[in-house]
Design a protein that fits this description.
The chain is built from four helices and eight strands; from the N terminus they run E-E-E-E-E-H-E-E-H-E-H-H. With about 180 residues, the chain is α+β, with helices and mostly antiparallel strands.
């Protein structure tokens, strides 16, 4: 079973993926994978050691029909960003939207905000999710960047998942391996 470091999502989150097929994957190759967020597109970066703890797995390399779907999803993602920014401005909300991810299966929109959000922002993202026939998930990027995914994240005592360490912090285990 091979393991690879890959980049997923609009913010370029690093994930360690396992690949159970004998065919090796090359750097720069795009794949469909399952992560804690769902089905996503990933770009393979480098192979990892066999003992690396993974936080996702490769389903398959991208196919031609996947590329067509990816382009359509990108258009929907851009539309969701514009719609959210417009609604935040119309309502006079101070929330700063960084970007939006739409999972490859089209079921979940992940809204990334720079700071804390409130109920008004939750209403906006829920409304947009209904419009795109998806589920809305709000992530506060600054909080996650400052504190990681939980206690001990990124400390010497608890190696970070994304760097290929063999252990996971409590937050990574709780979040399915979601260290930054």
């Amino acid at each position: 079973m091979a393991r690879y470091l890959a980049r997923v999502g609009c913010l370029g989150e690093l994930v360690a993926l396992r690949w159970t097929t004998a065919q090796p994957l090359g750097a720069g190759e795009r794949v469909i994978c399952r992560t804690r967020k769902g089905i996503e597109l990933a770009e393979v970066l480098v192979p990892l050691s066999p003992e690396t703890v993974t936080n996702g797995h490769v389903l398959r390399p991208m196919r031609q029909e996947d590329e067509l779907l990816a382009r359509r999803l990108t258009r929907h993602r851009v539309e969701a960003v514009r719609a959210c920014q417009s609604e935040l401005e119309t309502l006079g909300l101070d929330a700063v939207l960084l970007d939006v991810d739409l999972t490859f299966d089209g079921r979940t929109l992940h809204f990334y905000f720079l700071g804390p959000t409130d109920e008004a922002v939750d209403r906006v993202t829920s409304q947009l999710a209904r419009r795109f026939d998806a589920v809305a998930k709000v992530e506060q990027f600054a909080e996650r960047l400052a504190h990681g995914c939980g206690p001990g994240c990124g400390t010497a005592e608890s190696a970070r998942c994304s760097t290929g360490g063999s252990s996971r912090c409590a937050g990574c285990s709780r979040n399915g391996g979601g260290c930054l």
